[in-house]
Amino acid sequence: MNTPAAVRRVDPRRPAILTPQGLRRIVLGSTEGERGAARLQAAHDAPKAVRSQGPFKHAHVVVTHTERGALGDGARQALAAAAILADAATEVVLLALGPCKDDTAALGADRVLCATDFDASHYQPEAAVTWLRTLQTQMSVQHWFFADHSADGELGRRFAAASGLPASCGVAEINARETRTPASPTHDRVQPHTAVLLLGKGTASTHLPFVGLGLAAQAPAWVNAPHAQVEDLGVQVGDPQSLALEEADFIAAAGNGVQNVPLFHELARSLGAAVGASRVAVDDGRFTRAQQVGATGKTVSASTYLALGISGAVQHLQGIKDCRHVIAVNTDASAPMTKRADLTLVEDSAALMQALLQLVRQGKEQA
Ligand SMILES: Cc1cc2nc3c(=O)[nH]c(=O)nc-3n(C[C@H](O)[C@H](O)[C@H](O)COP(=O)(O)OP(=O)(O)OC[C@H]3O[C@@H](n4cnc5c(N)ncnc54)[C@H](O)[C@@H]3O)c2cc1C
């Protein structure tokens, strides 16, 4: 049996490079990764070949909870890592708890099985473990991949414990042979892949140079199984404005281009968004320091970041690099924020906030 090697600890959040294969590698003082990222982006835009047509002997299985039919960033990265590490005889299978509407072939999946009856409003991890163990008997699984994050991280640990498989948690780096995981404040553990891999943030790029087969398949029936020792109180909807910004999934942020602050707060409340702000808006006293996003404020990773009247200075962009969808509202179509944004609305912020508020009210009345 191989004994894990103890190596000097590195900060997993430290800048890293992307290898040509798309896996993240933590190194000091190199710009190679930026070139790697550019190459991968160029490859992302070109038409792509299918990674493998099979026949498949084994599987890399990725397990995740979906949210409103979408995969989270951690799951997308786990899927990409599973595909990058798979050889031609290894199928990449996605097991989704909940429906999945994402383009899973683009993320490297060959086969997708969804537990569409899964109800996320009830806490029943044991039922999920049972569902996975049913599937385990039907496939020759080489490795199980989970994002080491919230419900996916918990399920990965429970599944490893229930099935007696060795697991690596908080994997900071993975390559074809080994993983690096934090072992102590001073040392990391470098060891061969274990059967269950719980991947930390950013271990692989989702810009793959290939696609998977993306075939939908029938999943075993989901069976509800409340835990005898757990009293399930259901999901309590929290106040998004009392959430730490780093944990918020939807952030409405205001910059110097937002003068009507009460209107902005009304909009944020009605959208159920947490409130962020640029440094200028904070320095002006319109928002608190805890709401500042950017290099000297919070680094956020919301699924949606609505940036109203924010120019997109480099220090602000640093704080939103992990956000998935950025929507910019700005009167200046050439503001740097528009280059980062997935959608730009060239509009006065006050007019847009009024119109949006109206739409939200109408939507709520009709619901
Ligand atoms: C060391 C250092 C650290 C910093 N750290 C941070 C940080 O952590 N976070 C941060 O945010 N900044 C930070 N900054 C400041 C940063 O450089 C910018 O000055 C700041 O982000 C600009 O804020 P802003 O975009 O809100 O304001 P402005 O630069 O004034 O831009 C306002 C934007 O709103 C648009 N606009 C104007 N009126 C309207 C309207 N009616 N409707 C719609 N759009 C409108 C304008 O076109 C413009 O694009 C830092 C700077 C330094 C030097």
From TrEMBL:
Indicate whether Repeat appears among the record's keywords.
Answer: no
**Domain Electron transfer flavoprotein alpha subunit C-terminal, which positions?**
245-321
Q: Which residues form the Electron transfer flavoprotein alpha/beta-subunit N-terminal domain?
A: 61-177
Record key words, sorted: Electron transport, Transport
- Which organism does this record belong to? Rhodoferax saidenbachensis
Q: Which PANTHER family match?
A: ELECTRON TRANSFER FLAVOPROTEIN ALPHA (PTHR43153), ELECTRON TRANSFER FLAVOPROTEIN SUBUNIT ALPHA, MITOCHONDRIAL (PTHR43153:SF1)
The UniProt similarity line reads: Belongs to the ETF alpha-subunit/FixB family.
Q: According to the UniProt entry, where is the signal peptide?
A: none
Q: What is this protein called?
A: Electron transfer flavoprotein alpha subunit
Q: Which InterPro entries match?
A: DHS-like_NAD/FAD-binding_dom, ETF_a/b_N, ETF_a/FixB, ETF_asu_C, Rossmann-like_a/b/a_fold
The keyword Transmembrane belongs to this UniProt entry's keyword annotation: no
Q: Name one Pfam family in it.
A: ETF
